[in-house]
Design goal:
It contains one helix and three strands. It is α+β, with helices and mostly antiparallel strands.
């Protein structure tokens, strides 16, 4: 599973270790857990795809 990275130089998000501006991209801290999790849908989808690739489902 790929991780979302954020460029230190221009603050853009990317999936590559280097941004198009030439800056270094670093791992972003995960958001804090809340009951109203805006990203839960994406987390479930990523986990489902990973398990399907591993033939666990």
């Amino acid at each position: 599973m790929n991780k979302i990275l954020k460029c230190k130089k221009c603050s853009k998000y990317t999936m590559k270790p280097k941004c198009s501006c030439g800056g270094k991209a670093v791992t972003v801290k995960p958001p804090k857990y809340t009951l109203d999790n805006k990203y839960a849908k994406y987390t479930r989808k990523a986990k489902l795809e990973k398990r399907q690739k591993q033939d666990l489902l």
